[in-house]
Amino acid sequence: MEENTNQLSLRYGVEDSPKFQESALLGLQNVVTAFGGLVAVPLVIAGMAGSSVEETAYLISAALLVSGIASIIQSKGFGPKTFRVGSGLPIIMGTDFAFIGPAQSVIALGGLPAYFGGIMLGSLLEIFMSYFIKPLMKIFPPVVTGSVITLMGATLMSTAMDWIAGGAGAENYGVPLNLLIAGIVFLLIVILNYYAPDNIARYAILIGMFIGYIICIFLGQVDLGQIVAADWFSLPSFNKIGIDFNWTYALPFLSGYLVTVIESIGVVQTIGQVTETDLEDGQIAAGVRADGFSSFLGPIFGSGAAATFSQNAGLIPLTRNASRKVAIYAGVIMIALSMSPKLATVISVMPLPVLGGAGILMFGTVMASGIQSLGQVNIDTRNLIIIASSVGVGLGIAFRPEITAQLPTFFAGLFSSGISAGTIIAIILNLLLKEKHN
């Protein structure tokens, strides 16, 4: 592909096909970046259900398997136009935190089979809503989408800071050693990304995290015993726990699916912007449909609901690679990891400060993309109110999520995420505040 002299131009577009080795390494970079989010939800769900060590390991493997399949479906796209599933953009999919709240009450009522059944039945709502994306898109003008993209990067910053400090609730939270490790990784990525030749700069995050990982091994920060004890191979299987189909169990998840629709539209639009793709409404609808289809598929293999991952959007402008082939390779790698507990353990024991050093730059890049988008909006009084209110409410809830705890369950679910709350505020104000024409 011919290089553009523009520093921010892409090396590979969505349709381009990097060589095997490059695609595999960039795909691995995506998996390593997303791994914390991929395994966090099944770990929380296992804790809620009081699962054994064996059952917990099974839930994690199932989540990796389904995330890999879902990423391939989302990035490749399948089916005729009307029923197409998958946006065709390089998007990483994984288990979704939006369902943690309702999962607690459902698991308390009927255990994991009720959780799986409720997830499957509730996913039908998202699939149904995907056919109404075109009218929904009329309420997503640039002032709304720019605010959402900015908010998406900004709200992820608290996650990056928790990683830098050693993980929320960790005994060694914020100790200087954690900050030093994260700082080294951050500086390595910045220096490599800016000064290294192109063939090295594209792997800056992977290299920076690898060096940080090695440093942590020498500092005794990595539990090598867990890696040694893990099995090399384990075949995937269909749900071993059971699925209980009951509409009562689906109702608590409906708010989660409404949140997912809102967030998926935002993520697809963000990926569209950073990949320099002119999106059609049908692509966005197919992306939302892939979320719903993957969430329906998940419980069949023992996993929860799937959703688009926003954190990987930051990799695209940093690596200047937008090829969907890379995301498909990432999906294949996740499937392989699901069948190799040892390889999965190598990544899962990575100290969080290493991930945090990379996360601060990646999430900041997403936020910068949103600011760039807002730079093209006429900042009059109306648009200023929309931006300020959306970002203000979104960040406020991201910083103090407990503020929504006393709301009725449905509204608590809708406003539990800073991204969804800010998006809802932006949409409402965009509809209420009519543009003044001189």
Q: Could you please describe the fold and organization of this structure?
A:
One of its GO terms (cellular component) is plasma membrane. Belongs to the nucleobase:cation symporter-2 (NCS2) (TC 2.A.40) family. Keywords: Membrane, Transmembrane, Transmembrane helix, Transport. The N terminus is likely disordered. The chain has one domain. The protein is an all-alpha fold.
List the defining traits of the structure above:
transmembrane helix, Nucleobase:cation symporter-2 family protein, mainly alpha, xanthine transmembrane transporter activity, 19 helices, 438 residues, globular, transport, Xan_ur_permease
> What's the SSE pattern?
HHEHHHHHHHHHHEHHHHHHH
Q: What Rg do the Cα atoms give? A: 21 Å
Q: What fraction of the residues are assigned to beta strands by DSSP?
A: under 5%
Distance between the termini: 47 Å
The backbone outline, from C-alpha atoms, is: globular
Class per helix and strand makeup: mainly alpha
> Percent of residues in helical segments?
55-70%
Task: Tally the helices.
Answer: 19
Oligomeric form of this entry? single chain
Largest sheet: 2 strands, antiparallel
Low-confidence stretches: 1-7
The strand count comes to 2
Q: What is the domain total for the residues?
A: 1
Describe the strand arrangement of the main beta sheet, using strand numbers: 1-2
Mean pLDDT: 79
